[in-house]
Amino acid sequence: MTEKVRVAVAQIAAFPEDSVATAEKVVATLREAAAEGARLVVFPEALLGGYPKGASFGAPIGMRRPEGREAYRRYHAAAIDLDGPEVEMIAAATAETGQFAVIGVIERDGGTVYCTALYFDGDKGLVGKHRKLMPTAAERLIWGFGDGSTLPVFETPFGTVGAVICWENYMPALRMYMYHQGVTIYCAPTADDRDTWVPSMQHIAMEGRCFVLTACQHITRKAYAADHESALGDDPDQVMMRGGSAIISPLGQVLAGPDFSGETVLYADLDRGDIARGKYDFDATGHYSRPDVFQLSVDTRPKRAVSTQ
């Protein structure tokens, strides 16, 4: 296992209604990060397909307005299929660079879209996904719910990689399951750009004694279509999400970021020895656990509306 590895967090903006153009930007960012020596790159939540910041989708309580249905139609059209060109482009780029990448997407599956993190591993291509278990607040109107079948981690030459999306990171049981799986590089694609986010990530790094890589878009109103409903207003220079991406060590030290200045790529050199140094005095699922008092049961079976025998 490689003891030291350079990683990157890509704080870039989507083209919310053009997933192919966004995939091209992802490919360019992967190549840029590869030139800087980064073996792993984490991208923000809902980068492909877009995060519809400020939109209500025409849904007051007890009502669905026609303009909201049309907004959903456009959003569904902008989502990606896992056998589509965007995935093919990114898989080809990671094969070219030999990188591991974690990318937030809006995944289309029939009439439903899911907020998903995709995992790409070099020439293996797309190796897995995680669907967000619990969309936050109004996100529940437009995104389906993931189940326990998409909570994987992946072994790499530089550590065990897993991803938890945005406010899922506030679900203690989900974090505990990630620690149980031995995650050492904990990826947190997010749309939360508040000052309180990085302290939360520092807590998780210390709780899990893992490296945390969190990525958020820096995006302005002009990136969205003119007919995008925005509770933040329609000034083209209005910042819709301000970034705040960061890389954090297992003892909570901020190694890179947070950056609120614009689009950027953050880098840090991780020392895998810091995992064991951290777990010397705290291991949440090891010597600091109390299974005689607390136990967690996780159902990893896929849940389907219809099954056939």
Question: Could you explain the architecture of this structure?
Answer:
By secondary structure, this protein is of the alpha/beta class. It is built from 7 helices and 14 strands. The longest helix is centred in the first third of the chain and has 17 residues, at 19-35. The mean pLDDT is 96.
- Ranges with pLDDT <50 over ≥5 residues? none
Mean residue pLDDT = 96
- What string, H for helix and E for strand, traces the elements in order? EHEHHEEEHEEHEHEEEEEEH
Helix proportion: 10-25%
Measure the end-to-end span: 44 Å
Largest sheet: 6 strands, mixed
Cα radius of gyration in angstroms: 19 Å
Helix run count: 7
Strand proportion, as a percent range, falls in 25-35%
Strand order in space, largest sheet: 5-4-3-2-1-14
Feature tags:
alpha/beta; 6-stranded mixed sheet; 7 helices; 27% strand
In brief:
By secondary structure, the chain is α/β, with parallel strands linked by helices. The chain has helices spanning 19-35, 66-78, 85-97, 139-142, 172-180, 197-208, 273-279, and strands at 4-11, 40-42, 100-109, 112-121, 126-131, 153-156, 159-163, 185-190, 211-216, 218-220, 239-242, 245-248, 254-259, 264-271.
List the helices and strands and how they pair.
Layout: E1 4-11, H1 19-35, E2 40-42, H2 66-78, H3 85-97, E3 100-109, E4 112-121, E5 126-131, H4 139-142, E6 153-156, E7 159-163, H5 172-180, E8 185-190, H6 197-208, E9 211-216, E10 218-220, E11 239-242, E12 245-248, E13 254-259, E14 264-271, H7 273-279
Parallel strand pairs: 1-2, 2-3, 7-8, 8-9
Antiparallel strand pairs: 1-14, 3-4, 4-5, 6-7, 9-12, 10-11, 12-13
Helix pairs in contact: 1-3
